[in-house]
Write a structure and sequence with these properties.
This protein has 570 residues and is of the alpha+beta class. The chain has four domains: 4-152, Nuclear Transport Factor 2, Chain: A (Roll), CATH 3.10.450.50; 157-244, Beta Barrel (Lipocalin), CATH 2.40.128; 248-390 and 475-563, Rossmann fold (3-Layer(aba) Sandwich), CATH 3.40.50; 391-470, no CATH class. 29% of the residues lie in helices and 28% in strands. The chain has 17 helices and 23 strands. It has helices spanning 4-11, 17-27, 30-34, 57-70, 135-139, 156-160, 295-305, 330-345, 362-371, 391-405, 410-429, 433-443, 467-470, 478-483, 501-509, 512-515, 551-563; strands at 37-46, 52-55, 77-89, 92-103, 107-118, 125-132, 164-167, 173-178, 183-187, 193-195, 197-200, 203-206, 217-223, 229-235, 238-244, 248-256, 262-270, 277-281, 309-313, 354-359, 378-382, 487-493, 519-524. The strands form three sheets. The chain has a nine-stranded antiparallel sheet. An eight-stranded mixed sheet has the order 16-17-19-18-20-21-22-23, with helices on both faces. A hairpin with a 3-residue loop joins strand 4 (92-103) and strand 5 (107-118). Helix 8 crosses helix 9, helix 10 (391-405) runs antiparallel to helix 11 and helix 11 (410-429) packs antiparallel against helix 12. The longest helix has 20 residues, at 410-429. It is globular, with a radius of gyration of 27 Å. Pfam families: Peptidase_S15. InterPro entries: AB_hydrolase_Est10 (IPR053145), AB_hydrolase_fold (IPR029058), NTF2-like_dom_sf (IPR032710), Xaa-Pro-like_dom (IPR000383). It comes from Parasphingorhabdus halotolerans. This is Xaa-Pro dipeptidyl-peptidase-like domain-containing protein.
């Protein structure tokens, strides 16, 4: 009579026992976990006294069952591996490495593994020996994780220790930031910016573009004997050493939203504060405290370097913040920004002059926060259509630019824009579906337009949480800025595919703040949406560009200058 584990193995042959274990942990299925092992396998845990050893499918299944029962059922189990060595000999594969087991967001444990498994057939484990390990053991191994590589995220606690400002031999600074998925390096003098590729947790390489597979420079992070954090930089057969500078500290913090959720983030405290403080506000999508491509971390670091106290936080439902960002409109996002400002105002050494900064969608969120009663002393917005346009206007512009770059003919572009405009009207008013459906039907016969069209009226689910039903499509920020009496710096770019710079600038220049000098409007030539130098609006992706326009960082100095100046009368 066969065991349950043997029956599972027969029904679902093992092609990768590591994948089977990962699935078994996710499902808390002890029998499936045991099916990753041959019937007479041995499993040994050397995590202290006593050593635990299990022989055979039944005993191994019981060991997993005991583990799963000890873990809070509300916690999602996520198991993954990094392999250090693998060799095949005499029909067997011998492997060792380090595993990582995440217990939801509550805890993460690590352990080594040394296994022997079948080289043919089902590939199951013959023996498995495990001991304790650390996050450094796991992250220091070269190469990607073994499973689900495309969804792997950086360990923010581990890689956060590597970020910061390092002094180079030529007295320029190297600024290291990280996003959810990669590290970035910026030179303070040239503003060259590289998205780095992981060789191991402590060794990263960069190319000639923000995103590049070339390995033109290598960055090796380590500690000197006296404990200083340094980077060994290898480029053109030369080695340069950069030492970390204590220009500011970064502390993990949390605060409560107005509806009682916990939002987590980082608080930057400069060594030489200038009396100003700033809350950073996200762009669109599931952004953490560091932002898309770490642009929020780049901003936070630059402001802290200039003396600002800065709070940046994970959007709801991202990283360590509770909730769900996908169903939040501008009012909800603004409420969280106000909660962040309120919390920051209560912290030691933070004065009353607190502002907002952000890019892209942050423009609407900041304007909505002011409309709800927030009183930021100063505002800095980059590439923010939400400083001067509605969502409808912005999306129509963005679609037109992208379609032109894709080479679609003018008549078809016009047809797609007409359909999109009518779609927004229908979503706002829920009226005249016949007109939308007619435009959709006529446009859908053109193959080039099918990926650009919005749904017909029958396909709109107003409860699904899509952005076009969640966001306030017709929210106009101009009346907010019309009445705003604080200081503001609005930064736009020549080659912005998301924001029509000329139109936004024209509208803002008419406002009292622009006329009395409380606003400064800066246009960056040869620059794309988030401040990176570009050759054209159609060649402005991260794989096309190599660095920031330095005027972006000068705009932070302009903000500080405005903020310390007395208000001028209208």
């Amino acid at each position: 009579m066969t065991s349950c584990a043997q029956q599972i193995a027969a029904q679902d042959p093992v092609s990768d026992p590591y994948a089977v274990l990962r699935q078994a942990y996710a499902e808390r299925d002890a029998e499936r976990a045991a099916a990753a092992y041959v019937p007479d396998a041995t499993l040994t845990y050397d995590y202290g006294d006593p050593i635990e050893k299990y022989e055979g499918s039944a005993a191994i299944a019981r060991s997993f069952d005991d583990l799963f029962k000890r873990v809070d059922p509300e916690l999602k189990l996520d198991l993954n591996f990094r392999t250090a060595n693998s060799k095949t000999a005499k029909g067997r594969i011998e492997e060792n490495g380090v595993y990582r087991l995440r217990f939801g967001d509550a805890e993460t444990s690590f352990g080594t593994f040394k296994v022997v498994r079948e080289a043919t057939g089902q590939g199951r484990f013959i023996s498995d020996f495990g001991t304790s390990a650390t996050v450094d053991d796991f992250e220091s191994l070269p190469g990607p994780v073994r499973l689900d590589q495309e969804n792997e995220e950086l360990d923010s606690a581990y890689y956060g220790t590597l970020t910061g400002r390092y002094k180079l031999d030529d007295q320029c600074d190297l600024i290291i930031t990280h996003s959810i998925v990669r590290m970035f390096a910026r030179n303070s003098c040239t503003n060259d910016w590289q998205g780095l590729n992981r060789k191991s947790g402590r060794i990263w390489t960069g190319g000639d573009r923000v995103l590049s597979d070339k390995e033109l420079v290598a960055y090796e992070f380590f500690k000197e004997a006296e404990g200083a954090d340094v980077i060994r930089i290898r480029k053109d057969n030369k080695i340069t050493i950069a030492k970390k500078q204590p220009n500011y500290t970064r502390e993990a913090v949390s605060f409560q939203s107005r509806d009682g959720l916990t939002l987590a983030g980082d608080l930057y405290r400069p060594a030489n504060p200038n009396g100003l403080a700033m809350v950073l506000v996200h762009g669109s999508g599931p952004q953490d405290r560091n932002g898309y491509a770490s642009i929020m971390a780049v901003t936070a670091e630059a402001l802290a370097q200039r003396g600002h106290i800065v709070l940046t936080y994970d959007k709801r439902g991202v990283e360590k913040s509770q909730g769900d960002w996908s169903k939040m409109g501008f009012a909800d996002l603004a409420s969280d920004a106000i909660s962040a400002m309120d919390w920051l105002a209560m912290q030691q050494d933070v004065g009353s002059n607190i502002g907002f900064a952000g890019s892209s969608q942050a423009g609407w969120v900041v304007a909505k926060a002011i409309e709800q009663g927030a009183k930021p002393g100063h505002v800095h917005l980059l590439g923010a259509a939400g400083s001067a346009l509605t969502v409808e206007e912005q999306n129509l512009y963005n679609t037109e630019v992208r379609m032109r770059c894709a080479g679609i003919v003018e008549a078809e572009i016009r047809m797609a824009l007409d359909q999109q405009e009518e779609f927004f009207k229908y979503v706002r008013t829920r009226s005249n579906p016949e007109k939308l459906d007619g435009l959709t039907k006529r446009a859908s016969v053109y193959p080039a337009l099918r990926d650009w069209l919005f749904p017909s009226s029958a396909d709109v689910d107003f409860d699904a949480g899509d952005w076009f039903t969640t966001l306030e499509l017709a929210f106009d920020p101009i009346p907010v800025w019309q009445d705003y009496d604080g200081r503001a710096v609005f930064v736009f770019s020549e080659y912005d595919d998301s924001t029509p710079t000329a139109l936004a600038t024209k509208r803002l220049e008419k406002l009292p703040g622009a006329k009395n000098g409380n606003f400064e409007i800066i246009n960056l030539p040869g620059t794309q949406h988030i401040g990176l130098k570009a050759d054209s609006v159609c060649k402005a992706g991260l794989g096309d560009v190599s660095g920031f326009n330095g005027l972006l960082f000068e705009s932070f100095d302009r903000l500080a200058s405005l903020s310390h100046r007395k208000a001028r009368p209208d």
